[in-house]
Every structure is written in C-alpha cells, then in structure tokens.
Amino acid sequence: MPGRTRPGHRGSFEWNPQIKQEFPDCDDIIRRLIVSHQKRSRFLSRASIFWFRLFGAVEVTLGVVLPLLFLYPQTQNNTALQATVSVLISMAAALSSFWGWRDSWGIFRVQNLLLAETLSDWELNLLEIINSNATEKKMDALNKTRETVAALFAILNQEHEASFATVQSPNDIVTAINSRTQQQNRQPDTNGQAEPTP
C-alpha cells in the first residue's frame, strides 16, 4: 500500500522496494529528505502535545478550583490564595497561547497527511514507469522525483510559516493575562458568594 508506515517505526514512511531496485538515486533523494525531516518533526510534535496537555490540565483544574474558593468559609476571605490561583490560570493560558502548542501539533498532523499523499503519488508514478514500455525510464523517474521534491519542500515551508504565525507577541500575551485576571477577580460578583455563617 502506498504511503504505508514501517512496522516498529511509528510515522516512518516506506514505499515499494522495487523503486530502490530500479531507481536507487531517486529512492535515496526522497529518503534522505524525509528521514531528516521526520526526526525533527516527531520530536517537536511530541513536545507540543505534551506541553499543551500539561498546561491545559493545569488551566482546567485550577479553573474548577477557583470558584470553589469563594464558596467555602475557610477560603472566602483568603485573597492571597484566590489571587495566586487566578494568576496561575492566566499564566497557563498565556504560555499555551504564546507558544501555540495546540496549533503546532495540529500543523504537524496535517503535514504528515500531506507528506503521505505526496509520497503515495510519487510511488504510484514510479511504479507506473517501472511497468511501462518507456525507453527513458530513468529520466522519467528523475523528473517525477524532481516534482516530488519541490512539493515536499513546499509542504515543509508551510510548516515553518505556520509555526511562526502561531507564536504571539509578548505584549498581546500580557494584555490577555491582565484581561483574564480582571474577569476572574470579578467572578464573586457574577457567581455570588456564600452567605456568612452566623
């Protein structure tokens, strides 16, 4: 199956061994490009999803805890604790937004699909050349490989552009933190505080 992955190597692309036998130069060009990219891509993808899940869990957990601090008599008047939790929530959200971990992970996932599609098309084209009666098979294979390399570089370039686009400026992050903190500080007025015990 074109674009399949190799057993034991999650996310590693593999193609029909006939291509390496008939056109070793084409196979080597594509393989070197994909292998060098995938080492970096797998690392960044795993790092992005790890930090996104970690900071997301912190934000969600503290976001649930914060309203409870205004309900229990033991913490109703503990403004230092309330402010600390509020700031931690804002920082978790701001850092996640600043680095764009979720967007970066999505970019790598989409890119992986595009690479699989491009490599599958290249594999099918070269298999068609192998089984054809063309007299210039090697030249046809090199032309198809040249087109594929251009397509692969276009996909990788989109990754870099999208990655830089997900990173927000520090000023935007500070503004978001201040806005979020102000909203959370007004939370007792919107949710209501528990009545003081007699």
Short description:
The protein has 198 residues and is an all-alpha fold.
Secondary structure layout:
Layout: H1 17-22, H2 24-69, H3 73-76, H4 79-99, H5 101-130, H6 137-166, H7 170-185, H8 187-191
Helix pairs in contact: 2-4, 2-5, 2-6, 4-7, 5-6
> Into which percentage range does the β-strand content fall?
under 5%
The biggest sheet, with number of strands, parallel, antiparallel or mixed sense and barrel status, is:
none
Count every beta strand, where a strand is a DSSP E run of 2 or more residues.
0
The Cα radius of gyration reads 26 Å
User: Considering DSSP H and I runs of 4 or more, what fraction of the residues is helical?
Assistant: over 70%
Based on secondary structure, the structural category is mainly alpha
Shape: rod-shaped
Question: How many domains make up the coordinates?
Answer: 1
Query: How many helical stretches?
Result: 8
The mean pLDDT is: 79
Q: List the uncertain runs.
A: 5-10, 188-198
Cα(first) to Cα(last) distance is 74 Å
Instruction: Give the H and E element order.
Output: HHHHHHHH
